[in-house]
Specification:
The structure holds three protein chains of three kinds.
Chain A: H1 2-19, H2 51-87, H3 89-103, H4 107-118, H5 122-149, H6 152-159, H7 164-201, H8 212-219, H9 228-262
Chain B: E1 3-12, E2 15-25, E3 30-34, H1 41-49, E4 56-64, E5 67-68, H2 74-80, E6 85-88, H3 102-113, H4 118-131, H5 148-160, E7 166-170, H6 178-195, E8 198-203, H7 206-212, E9 215-220, E10 223-229, H8 230-235, H9 240-248, E11 249-250, E12 253-254
Parallel strand pairs in B: 3-8, 3-9, 6-7, 7-8
Antiparallel strand pairs in B: 1-2, 1-4, 4-5, 9-10, 11-12
Chain C: H1 2-29, H2 34-43, H3 50-59, H4 66-78, H5 92-127, H6 132-146, H7 149-163, H8 176-205, H9 208-215, H10 220-257, H11 263-273, H12 276-304
Helix pairs in contact in C: 1-12, 2-3, 5-6, 5-8, 5-10, 5-12, 6-8, 7-8, 7-10, 8-10, 10-11, 10-12, 11-12
Classes of the chains: A mainly alpha, B alpha/beta, C mainly alpha.
């Protein structure tokens, strides 16, 4: 069931070019704020662009960007966590200090500040989101690595002359995967939301790139006449986040079950 | 002030637990309720304090001095609990609030029951701490900083905070070695004598009952099966269950009584011990009365 | 206790220093030539000459290596000078100060209201577990916590500003304009606090010492609000720190949506205007606020329950 949902989400990112009836950037000011019709199933926005097409492309932009940001954060965080957990001593202290500094801020605020410093733009937004998300992975991975590091089979491995890289890859990482896969799901949901907020404020995507947060922002002047311009992207946002949360929850349940079976 | 429990029966939901519990404690007397765990001993204490679960039904009468307790409202019972009846719980460490210091908990209790200034309450709390045999500076210690024995004494001090007429001690001797058991026994003896309170001792440790109490009752599966003076009860038991209890204690420790106590939801008719009793006959299925202190028709 | 406070204080100072360093380094990683941007802002693109750019560069120490620039910046910051806005010409501190107070107004009000709703409801719903009040609270908590703040804000605006013109859509004139922004913040914040406090209270109320307290004659309100709450409060305080930070975060959004002239809005405005000194100034102020909140929550939780000191 979970895998079905994942596939559905993934296909969201791919479907747009095929399913969208119009070019999302095609503006036709003479037809702005049109109600839903057979030609424009969800109507048009303030610049006469097809809402449905924009929604579909926005899904793509959001999912791909969020996936990119999450992957970078995961990679950076895991590396830092492994380094801190494996080598300990002052690598650990250094990483720890860095994590504390980053963690002083709530994640979204940090992303906002980074985005503010770097400037508007999707690329900058992705960097900002990665920078605010890596700490979670670092902490968890560090804890797992520290425990694994002390395991006897690690000592045995070192006695046999295995390189640290080998030990990490073979003994340590397998324990790390389940934890971070669960975190990645929730991280993805968070990133989707954060990206929307950034775009809403003007710091993520730049027009005319469609993105749900940006669409919510541009619906503001027309709230009283066309509330649908708010409700569709808002609904999509909430639905996606709920779906990702659900996938995360079930993944968590499953990893617990797997661990129990192993024992 | 003494305690009179008259025909107390307690049902939880549809299950009858306590049946026709009847006993009297004279003012200043020390009385024991003996039995295995699960027999319903703590439930008697909870019934006296009216701290029963929501779906329970209580029948019978309980008199503390001249006051009948079963018909009192909740606010009235709040004035009885702690002030006129002090309870020392089984596993005293879990009855202490971990986020307050021991002394302040006692002081709270003192202020709850007596109209005194905060300073006077602190004084009294420190006195109580001393009285249970602990150094005065333990006032500011937190429960987790103390040993189990010390925590128990704090729990006793808490029970004394309201100057009660009756102290209920639920399994005070569990997890104590004989030396400590002895000291706790002396502590209870001294305290109840000092404040003139009666003591209701709930325990499965026969030795503790013997050293502390004048009279006692044996509880099995929610029913009193024998009641007599302690020496009589322990040296010349008349009910087969009490006899089995006594026989279970051998120099090496315990020899368990064959069988297990029945579930309260599936009690036999008549004598509740018949399924484990070596002397059971058909007559035992008739409801048995307490005669001459024993519920067994054979004695 | 004092030893602990000192220890946490030192940690806070170190972290704050790290925050400043982080902000500064991010600034220098930003693309574009800062000297050029400042020169453009000052003289316009037409008045741009090489000498002017160099002059700007020297003035702002942009020709020095980053470490020394950081030193300069630190020194002036320590004396209260955070630089000058490139766009407006006023000093950063002048821009920040009034807006900081307006943000504090909003956040303070939100926190106060949020606590006064969430604490009694959390306690009462735990005390009457399973009852109708509890059920309402659980649903409210679930709903409020799940909705993104953006949606709450816009939803409120839709209903109470546009459909039913009760409150102004934007601006900060008078108390009425504060209602919607504060409500948005309160909804999200109170929901989380309620959920957490309720769960924590339920845990505590199950503990044997609560039954013992009843046996000792303590009346229900005292047990709930003094005995149980103190023990239950610890995880809430720990999370209250986080909640306050989320509030600060949320206020950025809310200020933008409702055009409330606070620090969050300044951050966004200066971000869009590429006004680097102001951006950095805002970032530092936010950073310090966050560190302060975290430290306060730490100290408070130890005061409430001394067992926390051991973690």
């Amino acid at each position: 069931m979970r895998h079905v949902a994942l596939v559905a989400l993934a296909s969201l990112t791919l479907v747009a070019p095929f399913a969208a009836p119009h070019d999302p950037a095609a503006a036709d000011v003479s037809n702005r704020l049109a109600p839903p019709s057979s030609q424009f199933p969800l109507g048009t926005d303030g610049l006469g662009r097809c809402v449905l097409s924009r929604m579909l492309y926005a899904a793509r932009v959001t999912m791909l960007s969020a996936a990119a940001a999450t992957s970078i954060a995961m990679l950076a965080g895991t590396t830092a966590g492994v380094a801190a957990g494996y080598w300990g001593a002052w690598t650990d202290s250094a990483v720890g200090y860095l994590v504390n500094v980053f963690l002083a801020f709530p994640a979204l605020l940090l992303a906002l500040i980074f985005a503010a410093i770097l400037g508007p733009g999707l690329g900058h937004g992705i960097v900002a989101l990665s920078a605010s998300g890596w700490t979670r992975y670092a902490r968890v991975v560090r804890a797992i690595v520290r425990t694994e590091r002390r395991a006897r089979y690690v000592d045995a491995s070192r006695a046999m002359g295995a390189t640290p890289w080998h030990i990490v890859r073979v003994h340590v990482l397998p324990s790390v995967y389940p934890a971070i896969s669960v975190m990645a799901m929730f991280g993805l949901a968070n990133t989707v939301l954060s990206l929307s907020v950034l775009s809403f404020l003007g710091l993520g995507v730049v027009p005319p790139t469609p993105e749900w947060g940006a669409m919510i922002e541009s619906s503001r002047p027309f709230l009283s006449i066309r509330p649908g311009l708010l409700l569709w992207p808002a609904g999509a946002l909430i639905a996606t986040m709920a779906l990702l949360h659900w996938i995360g929850e079930t993944t968590r349940e499953n990893t617990r079950l797997d661990l129990r079976v192993e024992q | 002030m003494g305690l009179i429990v008259e025909n107390l029966s307690v049902r939880i939901g549809a299950t009858s637990i306590l049946k026709e519990i009847d006993f009297t404690i004279a003012p200043g007397e020390r009385f024991a309720i003996l039995g295995e765990s699960g027999a319903g001993k703590t439930l008697i204490a909870m019934s006296i304090l009216r701290l029963l679960p929501r779906d329970s039904v209580l029948e019978g009468r309980i008199y503390l001095g001249n006051d009948e307790l079963t018909t009192r409202s909740e606010p009235e019972m709040e004035r009885v609990r702690g002030r006129r009846i002090g309870m020392v719980f089984e596993q005293p460490w879990s009855s202490l609030n971990p986020v307050f210091s021991c002394g302040s908990q006692i002081a709270h209790a003192v202020r709850l029951h007596h109209r005194v200034t905060p300073r006077a309450a602190r004084e009294r709390a420190t006195d109580l701490i001393e009285r249970v045999g602990l150094p005065r500076d333990r006032y500011s210690a937190y429960p987790r900083q103390m040993s189990g024995g010390m925590q128990q004494r704090i729990a006793i001090a808490l029970a004394l905070a309201g100057s009660p007429e009756l102290i209920i001690a639920d399994e005070p001797g569990t997890a104590l070695d004989p030396a400590r058991l002895d000291r706790i026994s002396h502590l209870f003896e001294r305290i109840t004598a000092e404040i003139g309170a009666a003591l209701l001792l709930i325990t499965h440790q026969l030795a503790l009952a013997r050293s502390l109490c004048a009279n006692g009752a044996v509880l099995y599966a929610g029913e009193i099966v024998e009641m007599a003076a302690i020496p009589e009860l322990l040296d010349r038991p008349r009910h087969p269950y009490t006899q089995a209890l006594r026989a279970a204690i051998i120099p090496e420790g315990f020899r368990p009584i064959p069988g297990t106590a029945p579930e309260f939801s599936s009690l036999p008719h008549g004598c509740r011990f018949q399924l484990r009793c070596p002397f059971a006959v058909a007559h035992c299925e008739q409801p048995q009365q307490l005669m001459n202190g024993s519920r067994c028709w054979r004695s | 206790m004092t030893a602990l406070v000192v220890q946490r204080l030192i940690a806070a100072v170190l972290t704050a220093f790290g925050v400043a360093a982080l902000g500064f380094s991010a600034l220098n990683l930003a693309p574009g030539d800062q000297a050029e941007s400042v020169a453009i802002a000052r003289y316009g693109t037409t008045g741009l000459t090489a000498e002017r750019i160099e002059q700007v560069r020297r003035e702002n120490h942009l020709d020095l290596p980053p470490a020394r620039r950081f030193q300069h910046w630190l020194r002036s910051a320590a004396m209260g000078d955070l630089g000058t806005s490139m766009v407006r010409g006023t000093t950063v501190v002048q821009e920040i100060r009034p807006r900081l107070w307006r943000s504090v107004e909003l956040s303070g009000l939100a926190v106060g209201l949020s606590l006064s709703i969430a604490v009694p409801c959390g306690v009462w719903s735990a005390a009457r577990e399973g009852g109708w009040f509890d059920r309402i609270c659980r649903w409210a908590g679930l709903f409020g916590a799940a909705m993104p703040a953006v949606c709450i804000a816009l939803g409120l605006m839709l209903v109470f500003s546009l459909w039913i013109p009760l409150f102004p859509v934007a601006g900060a004139r008078g108390a009425r304009s504060a209602v919607l922004p504060v409500t948005t913040l309160v909804i999200a914040n109170a929901a989380w606090t309620l959920k957490l406090l309720r769960a924590s209270m339920l845990d505590v109320l199950r503990q044997p010492f609560i039954r013992a307290a009843r046996a000792r004659g303590f009346p229900q309100p005292v047990i709930l609000y003094r005995y149980a709450l103190k023990a239950a409060a610890v995880p809430v305080v720990n999370l209250a720190g986080t909640q306050f930070l989320l509030l600060i975060e949320g206020s950025v959004l809310v200020e933008t949506i409702f055009a409330w002239p606070g620090l969050g809005r300044l951050l966004v405005e200066s971000a869009l205007a590429r006004d680097y000194p102001v951006i950095l100034g805002c970032a530092i102020v936010f950073g310090f606020a966050c560190v302060a909140v975290n430290s306060a929550a730490d100290v408070l939780s130890v005061w409430l329950d001394p067992r926390q000191a051991e973690s």
